[in-house]
Amino acid sequence: MLSIGYEWVLDHLPEDVALSNSKGAVEDSTAEHCLALILASLRELPRAYQLQTEESWSRLWTSSLHGSNVVVLGVGGVGTAIIERLKPFKPAKITVVASTARTINGGIDVVSIENVHQLLPSAEIVICALPHTPQTQGLIGKEFMDRMRDGALLVNVGRGPIIATAALIKELETGRLRAALDVTDPEPLPVGHALWNAPGCIITPHMAGDTGQFVEMVSELATRQVQLLSSGQTPLNLVR
Predict the structure, then answer these.
(1) pTM to 2 decimals?
(2) Would you state the pLDDT for residue 1?
(3) DSSP H helical segments within 87-192, as ranges?
(4) How far is Cα 97 from Cα 74, in angstroms, rounded to an integer?
(5) 20 to 30 Å CA-CA from 194: which of 54, 102, 160, 226?
């Protein structure tokens, strides 16, 4: 598969067919795109572009990743790659959240998802890099957003259904929260949907992994898989 996520394929896959994903090929490009979304939102680049089209030299005072309190939901390959890219920007704190509390490579403490609500009032940026599962469906809903601080930025490079879209639109329309989304629910986002023009929201069309480098890496992975199969060895990245 040309992605890490695979949940939508399982219902259509015969029981005797194995499935592998593109682990190792897409994490860097997705993390890079996540940082682009964060910086574009914090530094008001959509507003700056609007001023450019108006030929208006009006300086903007913006927020910054430097000194911000960041919460990252998910510590898989993408989440880990995001964390590594956040560090050089000198955020005040990076808190990692996953299904269970533990310590991961590099001595990073992971907080259980059960305690995420305690972290939200002090977080300027919340990043979702979670897979779509029954447990994460609608995880970021009204109660979750109610606990987020005014002006906080919600970023999603995981899966669209993790965020309750109707609840997010209400928060965006009041101007209380901002969002930067590479994935949405529904997806593709239909013409005329309220999320397209919601204030304070940047949307990209599920393109975080779409780079030339990814194509090269996933092509190399596909070649390696064929070589393994032809020699009777177990393929890489089997997820079923």
Answers:
(1) 0.91
(2) 58
(3) 142-147, 165-174
(4) 6
(5) 54
Q: What pLDDT is attached to residue 12?
A: 78
Both structure tokens of 114: 């059960």
| Residues 36, 53, 42: CA angle, nearest 5 degrees | 30
- Contacts (Cβ under 8 Å, ≥6 apart) of 181: 37, 155, 156, 160, 163, 195, 201, 202, 203, 204
Note the residue count of the chain. 240
- 125-128: strand order across its sheet: 102-104, 108-112, 93-98, 69-73, 125-128, 153-156, 178-181, 201-203
The whole-angstrom separation of Cα 159 and Cα 104 is 23
Q: Exposure of 188 by Cβ count < 10 A (0-12 exposed, 13-18 middle, 19+ buried)?
A: exposed
At 88, list the tokens.
Answer: 């050089």
